[in-house]
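User:
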Amino acid sequence: MAEPNSVPLSPSSAPLPPGVRMIPISTPHGEFRVWTRKLGDNPSVKILLLHGGPGSTYEYLEALEKPLLDAGLEFYYYDQLGSYHSDQPNQPDLWEIPRFVEEVEQVRQALGLAVENFYLYGQSWGGILAIEYALKYQRSLKALIVSNMMASIPAYNEYAERVLMPQMDQGVLQEVKRLEAEGKHEDPRYMELLTPHHYEKHLLRMPQAEWPEAIFRTFAHMNPAIYVPMQGPSELGASGKLLHWDRTKDIHEIAVPTLVIGAQYDTMDPAHLRWMAGEFPRGRYHFCPNGSHLAMWDDEKIYMEGLLGFVKEVEAKRV
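Assistant: Predicted structure:
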């Protein structure tokens, strides 16, 4: 999820809000800090939120805040390294999946999250990161939530070609592809075409003028120095470092309770997401019939019923 011509702004120097911690992170390329914020208090349920992008921010996940607090749960906003509220080193070698996985593990340890309470939630790219983390560190997990992310980028690209692109006005699609072929992803015309014909149909199903302020904030704070190398410059599919990522043959190894959330109008194939849920030994699938990639905003009630219902199932040991 990105606006290709967006430029990351510098974080404010205002005092840190309550619950905020800057957590030190060790990497092969130096020591850095990442931003986290704790909200709520619950000894049994502590949810670490992994945002999308890559290079996005936690801000669009503010849709979850009131429902999670009202349910009495504890959760943590978290900007990954390179994202707006965290350090933003200019070191391309840092933007690799294994390095991000180790970052999440360091954050978990610093926050004191453990198998008796640690829920890991990942949305979009955060879902890739959550799956990768679980494959290596599931011994530390109580439960996993994968939202709006398929287990295969090749399958995602195939779905875009087979289903999403044929639904688009073909004249618009041809012009978008021409701009992409010419490398004009920052041309204002590119977003002028994509916003009504792609974003408002598959990212957030409402006119852009009505999008929540948190969405605009997220776009303004996007870091393309991470997004473009990993996801690629096109908004119609992936072409960067993630191009060949595929865990369809491995997710059966994740034995912790796992929720997969899909949506009818998402860029991610809801049938694939349903299949994923069946591959996890203790999987559950939740479908948002009116939602898109950001179903927590455009199908909020159904989305949160599924998420909170899953937590209740896990706490009652029914999954």
